[in-house]
Amino acid sequence: MAGEDEIRNNETKQVMKVLESLKQASQDLQNNPSSTVIKALLDLESEADSVFSTDRNLSNLSNLLSDLKAHLEELHQSKGHSIGSIIRRRFKTHDISRVAGAIQTQIQALIDRENIEILVEALQRSDGDEDENKVRILTQFEERVSQGFNRDLQDLVLKLKVFSVLESTLCDAKSSKRVRERAAAAVGALVQFNKDVFVGEVLMGHTVQALIEMGTNSSIKVLCTLIRSIKSPLVDEIEANKQIPKIITFLSSEDLSIKLTAFDCVLEMGYFGRKEAIEAMLEEGLIKRLVELQRSELGGDLIEMSSGHRMGDDSCRDREKKYYLEDHPFASCVARFAIQLEVGEGLRQREKRMLKQVILRSVREACASEAVAATILAEVLWGASL
């Protein structure tokens, strides 16, 4: 049995190698139909005949290759400088480009099918020794869907229930952290690939809960991506499942990367969150934690930098602000959160005014001195000028 598997794997590798070479040659032919490219493609066509002859799924591709060979031979025979010869060559070149494009599309569909079948099979095996291979094929899948929407690819993903397989891997505590993180990234890429189809899968499944429970820098980044894509409905889901407290605790992590990504997540939630979600964040002591971050070594007050610039110095000020935030990522973080609420999509105007008062009151309660409170309060009140 093991011997048969090895033979089948070797045959698959050989087919995939020829397909990749044909795909590149077809692309080269469309871009630059030189004699060198044509010769290389015809050589590959001969090799493909023997490799593809045993696979029924490759019969369409074999037919296309035969058509291309015929067109190339006709082009080669079309000589002369008469108007008729020139027109015939132009039409024949168009036919060659069209068939080469069809070959490239057909090959990509075959490669996608093979790679996705390998992905599903690998993830459904509970073999910890294959973590490196799983990470590799998950990364390969993420890169493929990140190239943009493709109807044939989507049909394959849906037919083979790839989202469910990815989510199961993400939620499997027995899988390694690396594999789960790559599965999370692949889920995020699928949502970007087609929001209309995969947003529903995220909202109905356990993806968000698994991302928050993992609590790694990578998983929180994917959560941020999902919030930006799904917006208020996802923040509603986080609030309904009582997961906001966990996100707020990430701001106190000893891992700086987690703390930074958690702050990005808080800002996204502030922009898209509705009243119930924002109230839950504030009740969890968010402002106190942000005040602590702002008073830390990585914090600071942007308002002090703003006051030192003359009118008309906007470009200089923006550059300095950018450089300052690179070294002080939590600078004016209270006001930056308040600004997200002010300009965001989740709140009505009346709710924005009410919650701003709650933030001001929380700042006064969280600050150890009136001087510190005065600076942060001024930033919150005049946040748009930061």
From TrEMBL:
The record's listing under SUPFAM superfamilies reads:
ARM repeat (SSF48371)
The record's section on InterPro entries has:
ARM-like, ARM-type_fold
What this protein is called in its record is Uncharacterized protein
